[in-house]
Each structure stands twice: as structure tokens, then as C-alpha cells.
Amino acid sequence: QVQLQESGPGLVKPSQTLSLTCTVSGGAIRSGGYYWSWIRQHPGKGLEWIGYIYDSGSTFYNPSLNSRVTISVDTSKNQFSLKLSSVTAADTAVYYCARDVAGTGWFDPWGQGTLVTVSS
Amino acid sequence: QSVLTQPPSASGTPGQRVTISCSGSSSNIGSNYVYWYQQLPGTAPKLLIYRNNQRPSGVPDRFSGSKSGTSASLAISGLRSEDEADYYCAAWDDSLSGPGVFGGGTKLTVL
């Protein structure tokens, strides 16, 4: 059974780059044609899709974040990563990694989520 | 403001049947599958319904999904206290050429 786990700093200073890693266990990240995704949830708010990296290495980002987002994969470590540059307090959120089964919003499973606070 | 529209709250008593709606447009719900997620307090969302009306293994058949035109619904029958959670709908949106879109979420209270 595939499981995902986010890791990274819980506190990032304004204007710096937020970096998170999602470790996939129970299955190879480069198998099955999945879309490895990042989603965030602002405190007390709804869900926002950030982007994904496809099995082949292609990426697709939310246009509202496109210029600041980079998602990459490290198959040797069975991990994929998120970098969000020039962060502000508005980027404070719980960040989830998830596997999108078909690239259509079919997210299963999800990581437990990690809270990232942007503050000086 | 979310692309998909859900009522912010819903409620019911144990044993009752409740329905949560999700309204979109021809570029999202009207032409793509709808997914539903359940988020219990303090936990990550969990897939509840995929491809409009399919239940993953382990999800009770008390939960059902439907879609008609540019709207979708999640129905919960035989309401239980443990169903108290936030529920989100999701779909792909062709016109945005990118992101999957979520509804704003519905907080279900079991009275």
C-alpha cells in the first residue's frame, strides 16, 4: 500500500524559498503513470491545487502560482519535491502531497500534511 | 472564491439522509469526472468518491455520489456522528488549462 510523507522546515522567512519533500513508500514513484501532486490548505480554509509532476517528468502548475513553483522528482530516493519562491505570509498553509491517479483530481492517497509558516 | 460552489454548511440528525451539492460549469463538472473528499478534524483529506459515483474499497455504501449536467451531489444516508467532517468536491477544469479545482468545502454537523 502506497504511503506518502511530507518533510521540510516548518518556518520560512518572507522572500525566501519554501522547500518540501514527499517520500513515497510502498511503491516505485516511476511506475504506473501517476501524477505526483502538491496541494495546500490555508488555515481554516479550503484546498488549493499547486501542481504535479507526471511519471515522465512533465510538470503542470496552477497558473496563479506558476512563476514561483517548481516540482521535481528524485527517483533514486523515491521522492518528489516542491519549491515555492519569494514566499509571503499568504503562503502560510498546510502543504499536502498526494498521488493523482489519473491527472483529473483523483487524489489517493494523501500525505498527512505539514504546516509551513512564513514569518520573520 | 472557489471555482466549484458548495454550501458552507449542512447538518442532520443521526440516521438521517443529507445531501451536499457542488455546482460548476461546462468546463469542469460538465465535461469531467467529479471527486469527493472527506476531511475529519485535524487530518488530511481522504478520497470518498471517484469518477462521479464510485466508492473506493473501505468506504461505506452509506456514501454515494451523483452528477447531472454541471452539478454534482454527495449523499450520506444513515448519518452517524463520525461523519461530522468537512467535505470537498473536485474536478478538472478544461478552460483553466491547468489546475484541478476544488469546491470551497461543506462543514457537516451531526446534531
Quick structural overview:
With 120 residues, chain A is mostly beta strands. Helix content of chain A is 0%, strand content 52%. Chain A is globular, with a radius of gyration of 13 Å.
How would you describe the overall organization of this protein?
The complex is a heterodimer of chains A (120) and B (111). Chain A is built from no helices and eleven strands. Chain A has strands spanning 3-7, 11-12, 18-25, 35-41, 47-54, 59-61, 69-74, 79-84, 93-100, 107-110, 114-118. In chain A, strand 9 (93-100) and strand 10 form a beta hairpin. The N and C termini of chain A lie far apart (39 Å). Chain B has 111 residues and is mostly beta strands. Helix content of chain B is 0%, strand content 43%. Chain B has no helices and nine strands. In chain B, 42% of the residues are buried. The A-B interface holds A 46-49, 51, 60-64, 66, 96, 100-101, 103-113 and B 2, 32-33, 35, 37, 43-47, 50-51, 56, 88, 90-92, 96-105.
What class would the helix/strand composition of chain A place it in?
A: mainly beta
In percent, how helical is the residue content of chain B?
Answer: under 10%
The major sheet of chain B is characterized as: 6 strands, mixed
Helix content of chain A: under 10%
Mean pLDDT across all amino acids of chain B: 94
Structural class of chain B: mainly beta
Our measurement of the CA-to-CA distance between the termini of chain B, rounded to an integer number of angstroms, reads 28 Å
What is the global morphology of chain A?
globular
Uncertain regions spanning at least 5 consecutive residues of chain A: none
Oligomer: heterodimer
- What pattern of helices and strands is seen along the backbone of chain A? EEEEEEEEEEE
Shape of chain B: globular
Question: Tally of extended strands of chain B?
Answer: 9
* Fraction of residues in β-strands of chain B: 35-45%
What does the main sheet of chain A amount to? Answer: 7 strands, mixed
The string of secondary-structure elements of chain B, in order, is EEEEEEEEE
Radius of gyration of chain A, CA atoms, in whole angstroms: 13 Å
By DSSP, the count of extended strands of chain A is 11
Runs of chain B with pLDDT <50, length 5+? none
